[in-house]
Fold Amino acid dehydrogenase.
Amino acid sequence: MKILVLGAGVVGTATAYYLFRDGHEVEVVERLTGAGMETSFGNAGGLCPSFAGPWAAPGMPAKVLKMVMQADAPVRFSLRPELRRLSWARKWLRECNAPRFRVNKLRMQRVAHYSYACLQELMAQTPIAFDFHADGVLQLFQTDAECKLGNIAANALAELGIDHKMLDSEAALAIEPALKRASVAVAGALHLPADASGDSHAFCQALAAWLASQGVRFHYSTRVEQLLHTAGRVTGARTSAGPLNADVTVVAMGNQAPALVAPLGIKLPVYPLKGYSITATVTDAAQAPTVSVMDEHSKVMISRLGNRIRAAGMAELIGDDLSLKPERKKLLVRTVRGLFPDGIDYENASFWAGLRPMTPDGPPILGPSGREGLLLNSGHGSNGWTQACGTAKVVSDLASGRKPEIDIEGLTIERYRG
Ligand SMILES: Cc1cc2nc3c(=O)[nH]c(=O)nc-3n(C[C@H](O)[C@H](O)[C@H](O)COP(=O)(O)OP(=O)(O)OC[C@H]3O[C@@H](n4cnc5c(N)ncnc54)[C@H](O)[C@@H]3O)c2cc1C
């Protein structure tokens, strides 16, 4: 079949890979100059199936309100009335309770662990490099109260059968000796040995280049303007370079997916949640972290990507704003420097902002759109790098008329209809 993939972020590029592997004729349309240039460019790099979970959690609304009051709050939201945000927030609030959290977490865990297995298989079958690093993740706690929450998380991991270990300060420092120089307290940590990290931009670039060498066509600097359809069936897309026809079209346009499908009456509840990252060069390997660290105190994730450190965090519900706020960069630098004071060139750190394509409940929206010829691969939120390969494989299986290897209950748009 001829299949059109719209968007070459980590989700679209991975989708193109599985479709190509299934023997389809694949074309990818991307408005930017290359693959992985938007949200997939500067994320934290965490491949973290162990703690993939929804932002909608019990007590979260109160926590968000409390955080907003703090100076340098990691969370912000705009009070400007916007129908799209209000509608998303209303749905999100409905998910912030224990029963819904459990359902959503299990759905995301199902995707995330499957996805990590798919990524490992992909790495074995392609010659791509992307600073992959499988040394586990330390979820770091600075206070006893945070350690208590860590224990609750550990119990949930035990219930799910996920490999983990609660560590005291000494054991945490033994796993990541660079923390010995931290100027903030390390009260304890939750070690997730099965998690990893990697550069999703490098992954996209390398995979797209390899796919192009195998015959997949990438139309860069080409904007998708509209879906083409006749008699209720989607037949491709009109682009800035002209029409492209296909038997199946897959929408993998991150935050832009809702606007594309809306004229067909498809309501995708995906809203951008802004975050920031810094990337800095390691100048002394002995003093920089090798293990990925999720600092629970600041909610900042720090990953080692080759000879660089990437640190990302913050959550701003303020629409499609990608402006770079210098005070956010200072906050990120201050946070990372508190943990790793030396061995990193903070002075020349680059700064980036991205928009996580969030669903209100957390899991992505995969597969059937309700329109013949149109499949969705959207709404990967704050776990899109972790979930990309698994969701891509699911969508490719569906496009090829095969039953996906994981149950897609609760992962399709059906959960919002009704
Ligand atoms: C600060 C931050 C930290 C994060 N950390 C992590 C992490 O540690 N681990 C993790 O798993 N995830 C993380 N994420 C989430 C992850 O980055 C996203 O979920 C993922 O990148 C989404 O991928 P995507 O392909 O859906 O979207 P995108 O990467 O945004 O790709 C969509 C593509 O569609 C293209 N497009 C849009 N409109 C059009 C159009 N009209 N025509 C043509 N092309 C179009 C865009 O240019 C873009 O390239 C983080 C995100 C942020 C912001």
Remarks:
- Residues 152 and 396 are 37 Å apart (CA to CA).
- The chain has a mean pLDDT of 95.
